[in-house]
Design a protein that fits this description.
Serine Threonine Protein Phosphatase 5, Tetratricopeptide repeat, mainly alpha, about 350 residues, single chain, about 0% strand, about 75% helix, 20 helices, two-stranded antiparallel ribbon
C-alpha cells in the first residue's frame, strides 16, 4: 500500500513540473523589463522546447521590441507545436496576466505583415512571402496582406499573381487609397491612361495623398496636359520636397510649358537629391539647349556622358550643342559616335 501511494505522488509530481522561468518571464513583462523577460523566456524554451507557450510569450516580447521577424518566427513555431493556438480564445487566454489579455489575436496579421515589410526592404522576397501567407491564413479578408502580396509578386515579375492580389485587395477594401493607387499605376502601365486618371482623381477627392498627385501629374504629362501636370506635381512637391522623381518630372513639365528657368531650377534640385542618375543632367542639358544657353548645356551633357558613356542619345545632344556653338568638327564626331553605339546595340 505504501509503495502504491509513493508511486502516485511521484506521478503527480512529474505532471505538475513546469519551468520556473515561466513565472519570471511574466513578472518581468509586468515590470516592463523586456530584456530580462526575453532572457527568462529563452530559459523557459530551453526547459520546455516542445511547449508552444514559451514561444507565444517570447513572440509577444519581440512584438513589444518591434522585432517583427523574430516575433513571427516564434508565433509560427507555437502554431506548429499546437495548431489550436490559431484560435482567438485559446491564444488570448494564454497571453494573459491576472485575466487581462496583453495582445489581441487580431494583431497577429499585422505582425506578420510588418515582418514581411522588413524582408521586402532587404530584398528577401521569398522569405517575405512566407509571412504574408501566414497573415492570409489568420485573416483572409485583410486587404493590406493582399496589397503586400501584389508588391512582392510584382517585384518577382509574376504579373498574373501580382494583378490577382491587387484586384483582391481592392475588392475587399474599395476605398483603400493605397490599393487604388496601385491599381491606377497598373492601368497606366497597361496603357489605359483614362481609367488610371479617373482612379487618381477619385483618390485625391477622398484624401490628399502625395503619391496620387505625383502619379496624376505624370499621367497628365504623358497625355500632353503640361499645365495641369505641373499643378499636380507642385502639390506633390509641397507635400514631399525630397522626392527627386517629383522634381525631375516637374522640371520636364515646366520645360514643355517653355518656362526654362523653373525647369532648370527643379531639375537641379532633383540632381542634388540623386547625383548618380545621369538622366537628370542630360535633361538639364536638353532644357538649356532649348533655352539657347549652349555653353551651360555643354557642361551638363559632358557630366551626363562622364556617368554613362554608352548612351547614343547623349552624343546626339552634344553634337547638336556643338553645332549650335559652331564646332562643326566636334559635332560630326559625336554624330558618328552615336551611330556607332546604335549599331553596336543593334538599333
Amino acid at each position: 500500500m505504501l509503495k502504491r501511494l509513493s508511486l502516485l505522488i511521484l506521478l503527480y509530481g512529474c505532471a505538475s513540473v513546469g519551468s520556473p522561468a515561466a513565472s519570471s518571464t511574466k513578472i518581468y513583462i509586468q515590470n516592463n523589463n523586456l530584456e530580462k523577460a526575453e532572457e527568462n523566456a529563452n530559459a523557459w524554451i530551453n526547459d520546455q522546447p516542445n511547449s508552444p507557450k514559451p514561444y507565444i510569450w517570447r513572440g509577444y516580447i519581440y512584438t513589444r521590441k518591434n522585432e517583427w521577424v523574430k516575433a513571427s518566427e516564434d508565433f509560427i513555431k507555437a502554431f506548429s507545436l499546437d495548431t489550436s493556438y490559431r484560435r482567438k480564445e485559446k491564444f488570448e487566454k494564454e497571453l494573459s496576466i491576472a485575466g487581462q489579455n496583453l495582445m489581441p489575436f487580431s494583431a497577429l496579421p499585422t505582425i506578420f505583415q510588418n515582418a514581411a515589410i522588413v524582408l521586402i526592404q532587404e530584398n528577401k522576397l521569398q522569405e517575405a512571402l512566407r509571412y504574408l501567407q501566414e497573415a492570409e491564413k489568420l485573416d483572409p479578408k485583410n486587404a493590406n496582406t493582399y496589397l503586400l502580396l501584389h508588391g512582392v509578386y510584382n517585384s518577382l515579375g509574376d504579373e498574373r499573381k501580382s494583378r490577382e492580389y491587387l484586384e483582391k485587395a481592392v475588392s475587399l477594401d474599395p476605398k483603400n487609397p493605397k490599393a487604388r493607387l496601385q491599381l491606377a499605376i497598373l492601368y497606366s502601365y497597361e496603357g489605359n491612361k483614362d481609367t488610371a486618371e479617373k482612379i487618381l482623381r477619385g483618390i485625391i477627392k477622398d484624401t490628399a495623398m502625395v503619391e496620387a498627385y505625383k502619379e496624376l501629374g505624370i499621367i497628365l504629362f504623358e497625355k500632353g496636359n503640361y499645365k495641369e501636370s505641373a499643378e499636380n506635381l507642385e502639390k506633390a512637391y509641397q507635400m514631399k520636397s525630397d522626392d527627386y522623381e517629383i522634381l525631375a518630372n516637374l522640371g520636364q513639365a515646366y520645360a514643355q510649358l517653355g518656362n526654362y528657368d523653373k525647369a532648370v531650377e527643379y531639375l537641379k534640385k532633383a540632381y542634388e537629391l540623386k547625383s548618380d542618375e545621369y538622366r537628370i543632367p542630360f535633361s538639364i542639358a536638353g532644357v538649356l539647349y532649348d533655352a539657347k544657353r549652349y555653353k551651360e548645356a555643354l557642361d551638363y551633357v559632358n557630366l551626363a556622358i562622364s556617368m554613362k558613356k554608352d548612351d547614343p542619345t547623349l552624343y546626339e545632344l552634344r553634337a547638336a550643342i556643338y553645332k549650335a556653338l559652331g564646332r562643326t568638327k566636334d559635332a560630326v564626331a559625336d554624330f558618328k559616335r552615336a551611330e556607332d553605339l546604335k549599331k553596336a546595340k543593334g538599333k
